UniProtKB/TrEMBL annotation:
It is found in: Cell membrane. Pfam families: Na_H_Exchanger. Its main location: membrane. It comes from the Bacteria. It is a multi-pass membrane protein. Residues 12-403 form the Cation/H+ exchanger transmembrane domain. Keywords: Antiport, Cell membrane, Ion transport, Membrane, Sodium, Sodium transport, Transmembrane, Transmembrane helix, Transport. The lineage of its organism: Bacteria, Bacillati, Actinomycetota, Actinomycetes, Micromonosporales. This is Na+/H+ antiporter.
Length: 524
């Protein structure tokens, strides 16, 4: 019962913190991290220990899965080269460089343990990168690169941690052993993710009940991760592949009711998980500080060197990766050369998150089962400090930097023009379908449907016009909402006076709510 109460308290605090973040104009992960840091020293506040298994199997899978569902596969494929350079190349280089630097500072510590620390702090976080990038309003390709990097870099980092820990424990690690481990993790994860995605797609096609559709969708990431972990492959790769595959095919797999309902369910789950996870990260401060035994000077020195190295390595990697690749004619002809401001923003958007802390908690205890003595508590603190520093330093300054450099989201006019063109073609197809199947239908119904097609086409073209005056569709939405409010009020009074049963009110409310939600979507 106590754990249930603690969970309710954490969820409630995360909801209040998210509301506070919206009121202050900050990103929720930053506010909740600070709230957690403060609450960790409140007397009597429940202890919260972040178990690695909870993060890697219970929290990370749905977050990665939803992020993959929402990722555009064509955009992901076009940005695959920079994504892999960041998610694989940069993570490996960061782990090795940070490992060697820490080994120079602490020569008595085995190099394998230092490289494990480098791998732990190497991957930027999926949640914070996506939340902040979207909030800032960065160009679509930049957001795709950051999302793609955060979807795949955890797999690279976790494999490197596993290999480094194996070397630390005395397992023979050579080129072929590492190649085999990486191939098994990545290749096995890809096959498992694809196999379960195909199975989930088959189930979605067979299921007609929206509730069962949602149940299949909720179970998919957890089943994929559990199977991948049991077969010692990369669960991150597996769940991302499953999400990309199903997300690209959702329009053909689910009914409209299922899609709307599943979107609402996932939004709530992601909202709660994101809030709780960053609150839990902040709450670790007291435990992490109480466990550290290394002297303060060494702790500060190692933390500062690791933080500085992470910033420098990311900048030194991204500029050559951006511009040297364009010396190749095929790439130069396919991709425009971005201004230097774009890689600068990408380089600064390297916030770390919960996976870093969870991976640090998996480090083996020194002096147990043949593990050499090394400062495990120092490495856990460094991982925690890197999360806090990157979120508070880079996370808070990224919006300012993007505005200062003039890196803004893509023009809405271009999207509106593309939408209007496709809407025009869609309208012609709709009218052709109407004429083909209209035999025997009342003329009034046919005319009403023709008017609906014309109205949608006009709405698309209106978005290209001036925003200073109210458009006809905006006026329609405003007036129709007032009408719906009046209708809803009449039904409520009739229910209160006993002239209609509750079931009639519920049915009328549902129809009015659906129409009003459609008006809201049109405004957005």
């Amino acid at each position: 019962m106590e754990s249930i109460v603690d969970t309710v308290v954490l969820v409630a605090i995360s909801v209040v913190g998210a509301a506070l973040a919206r009121r202050l104009g900050f990103v929720a992960p930053l506010v909740l991290l600070v709230v957690g840091l403060g609450l960790s020293y409140v007397p009597g506040f429940p202890d919260a220990h972040l178990e690695p298994e909870l993060v890697l199997i219970g929290i990370l899978p749905p977050l990665l899965y939803v992020a993959a569902l929402q990722t555009s596969v064509p955009a992901f494929r076009l940005a695959l080269r920079p994504i892999l350079l960041l998610a694989v190349g940069l993570v490996v280089v960061t782990a090795l460089v940070v490992g060697f630097l820490v080994h120079l500072l602490l020569p008595a510590v085995p190099l394998a343990a230092c490289v494990a620390l480098g791998a732990i702090v190497a991957p930027p976080d999926a949640v914070s990168a996506t939340a902040i990038a979207r909030r800032v309003g960065l160009p679509r390709r930049v957001v795709t690169i950051l999302e793609g990097e955060s979807l795949l870099n955890d797999a690279t980092a976790l494999v490197m941690v596993r290999v480094s820990v194996g070397a630390l424990m005395g397992t023979a690690i050579g080129f072929w052993e590492i190649t085999l481990a990486v191939s098994r993790a990545a290749g096995g994860g890809l096959l498992i993710g694809l196999a379960f995605a195909v199975a989930a797609a088959w189930l979605h096609r067979k299921v007609e009940d929206p509730l069962l559709d949602d149940a299949v969708a909720l179970l998919t990431p957890f089943v994929v991760v559990i199977v991948a972990e049991s077969l010692h492959t990369s669960s991150v790769v597996a769940v991302v592949i499953a999400g990309l595959y199903l997300g690209h095919r959702i329009p053909y797999l689910l009914s409209p009711t299922s899609r709307l309902q599943m979107e609402a369910v996932w939004r709530l789950i992601v909202f709660l998980l994101e809030g709780v996870v960053f609150l839990l990260v902040g709450l670790q401060l007291r435990d992490v500080l109480s466990a550290i035994e290394t002297d303060t000077a060494t702790t500060v020195k190692v933390t500062a060197v690791v933080f500085g190295a992470l910033l420098a390595i990311r900048f030194l990697w991204i500029y050559p990766a951006t511009y040297l690749a364009r010396l190749i004619p095929r790439i130069r002809n396919r991709e425009d050369r971005p201004p230097a401001t774009v890689p600068t923003v990408i380089a600064w958007a390297g916030m770390r998150g919960v996976v870093t802390l969870a991976a640090a908690q998996t480090l083996p205890e020194p002096g147990v089962d043949g593990v050499p003595v090394y400062p495990r508590e120092l490495f856990v603190f460094v991982a925690f400090a890197i999360i806090v520093l990157t979120l508070l330093v880079q996370g808070t300054t990224l919006p300012w930097l993007a505005r200062r450099l003039g890196v803004r989201e893509d023009s809405s006019a271009e999207d509106a023009l593309a939408e209007a063109g496709v809407q025009h073609a869609a309208g012609r197809a709709a009218l052709e379908a109407l004429e083909k199947h209209a035999d025997g239908a009342p003329e009034s119904v046919v005319e009403r449907l023709r008017g609906l097609v014309e109205s949608r086409g006009n709405n698309a073209w209106e978005r290209l016009g001036s925003q200073e005056r109210e458009t006809p569709s905006a006026a329609y939405g405003r007036l129709r909402r007032e009408m719906i409010s009046a209708e809803r009020h009449v039904f409520k009074i009739a229910r209160n006076e006993g002239r209609i049963p509750e079931e009639v009110l519920v049915r009328a409310q549902r129809e009015l709510d659906l129409e009003e939600s459609q008006l809201q979507r049109s405004d957005d």
